[in-house]
Specification:
Helicase, Ruva Protein, domain 3; five-stranded parallel beta sheet; Rossmann fold; 18 helices; 14% strand; alpha/beta; 462 residues
């Protein structure tokens, strides 16, 4: 019996209808078991839990909807099959917990759509089970890495919330990997074959974000020479990731709340509401309750977003994950550059001792800098000054664990070139490895910055 084929239980007391429905379901790649009444259907449920139950409305020993009371967790999808195509029957079925209903004679296209949805959900559950096993053994969950207890709790949380359609709010310090969480939620959802659209609400100017999110009609404002779909429309049937949600202007938060509650969006300059089907994952590195208290975020929007919260731990609370991540990033850089470099034990101890206020992002930047500067073995001297100063036994900087970036240490007499080198590397470290920002801060071109880094790497100073 192939694990990949989901099981369907078909319940109908009419032999002709039962055979026809069984043939249709088999054609869609399902395994099928059948029953003619509630008693035998209940017995089938205990043998092997099905992914879907297709049950007739009227059965010899009761109403088909009664099977909903006999289901164990995880509950399969239940689709009512009825010859009584009335509004009252449909409402009764949905209120009782059925996910859909089909009218006899069953429309093949409609049944196929229902079964495709169930098959995808079954595949996602299998992937989630596989990922859970993988993270236990290897400390990996998709693109995320970590074997520490706090991260395994996050992975389990993602696995639970992903298959739902509820709104997710991801919180955590800057650099902890909130977008990776959003991507994992999308990939493990039924929307994985649809668009994943990400936007940083703090990176778009206040006068453009409304048009960016909701779209605009031609002539809506100066420069609007054509109609434009917003991000909500582009994410239709997929997932929209709203990063730094607290940076959204307060007046736009009202519109966002309306969109979330109505399931429709109106373009700027438009009058016609457009129906959308979008799952929203929002994120912030700020204290959102504090933002509400300060009047920078609406309380009703926060409640609407915080249906399924996921909080990411800072790297300093993840124990041995620093070593796992460091080796992963080094291997990744090696594949990109076609070079193999290793971390020395003193460098590993320095990384483990540093608190990484910039979290995973800062760790990756530190490894990138060290990879550029080192020949083959990365030592403490190749790490950013603040990280190297955290090494056990070092006294040349932040011996408290590196919670503050180290300053530029000038030991006179010193050549101008050496002073320049120390200034450049310290500035790059303070800016979290952002080379463009570093070049701008120092008043040099990005080309000059890269030239200097190559020069320092060639010299390999100790």
């Amino acid at each position: 019996m192939a694990d990949s084929a989901p099981l369907a239980l078909v319940v109908d007391d009419d032999p002709g209808s039962l055979a026809a429905l069984e043939a249709l379901v088999l054609r869609e790649g399902f395994e099928v078991v059948t029953a003619a009444d509630l008693a035998s259907a209940t017995a089938r449920l205990t043998e092997r839990p099905p992914a879907i139950v297709l049950v007739d409305y009227n059965l010899p020993d009761g109403r088909g909807l009664e099977i909903l009371e006999r289901l164990a967790e995880p509950r399969p999808e239940v689709v009512l099959v009825t010859g009584e195509a009335t509004l009252e029957t449909a409402i009764e079925a949905l209120r009782a917990g059925a996910s859909d209903f089909l009218v006899k004679p069953v429309e093949v296209a409609r049944l196929k759509a229902v079964l495709e949805s169930v098959a995808r959900a079954s595949a996602y559950r299998s992937e989630i089970r596989s990922l859970r096993g993988e993270l236990r053994e290897l400390g990996r969950f998709g693109a995320m890495i970590g074997s520490s207890e706090p991260m395994q709790a996050v992975f389990d949380r993602i696995a639970r919330v992903a298959p739902t359609d509820a709104t997710v709010l991801v919180t955590g310090e800057s650099g902890t990997g909130k977008e990776l969480v959003a991507e994992a939620v999308h990939r493990l959802s039924r929307r994985s074959h649809r668009p994943f659209v990400a936007v940083n609400c703090g990176a778009i100017s206040a006068n453009l974000i409304e048009s960016e999110l909701f779209g605009h009609e031609r002539g809506a404002f100066t420069g609007a020479d054509r109609q434009r779909k917003g991000l909500f429309e582009r994410a239709h049937q997929g997932t929209l990731f709203l990063d730094e949600i607290s940076e959204m202007p307060i007046e736009l938060q009202v519109r966002l709340l309306r969109v979330l509650e109505s399931g429709t969006v109106t373009r700027v300059g438009g009058e016609r509401p457009i129906a959308i089907d979008v799952r929203v994952v929002a994120a912030s590195n700020r204290d959102l309750d504090g933002a509400v208290a300060e009047g920078r975020m609406r309380a009703d929007l926060l409640y609407r977003l915080r249906v399924l919260p996921i909080e990411l731990p800072p790297l300093r609370e993840r124990g041995g994950d620093v070593t796992i991540l460091a080796r992963h990033f080094l291997a990744e850089l090696g594949r990109e550059q076609g070079l193999e470099k290793v971390l020395s034990e003193p460098a590993l101890r320095a990384l483990a001792a540093y608190s990484f206020p910039g979290n995973v992002r800062e760790l990756r930047n530190a490894l990138h800098q060290a990879f550029v500067l080192a020949e083959s073995s990365i030592g403490v001297e190749h790490l950013p000054p603040a990280v190297g100063a955290a090494a056990p036994g070092r006294r040349d900087g932040a011996a408290t664990g590196g919670t503050e970036p180290a300053g530029v240490l000038l030991e006179l007499p010193m050549t101008l070139a050496e002073a320049e080198r120390r200034l450049l590397l310290a500035t790059l470290d303070r800016l979290g490895g952002d080379k463009a920002k570093c070049a701008e801060t120092l008043g040099i071109s990005l080309k000059t910055l890269y030239s200097r880094l190559r020069e320092y790497s060639a010299r390999d100073p100790s």
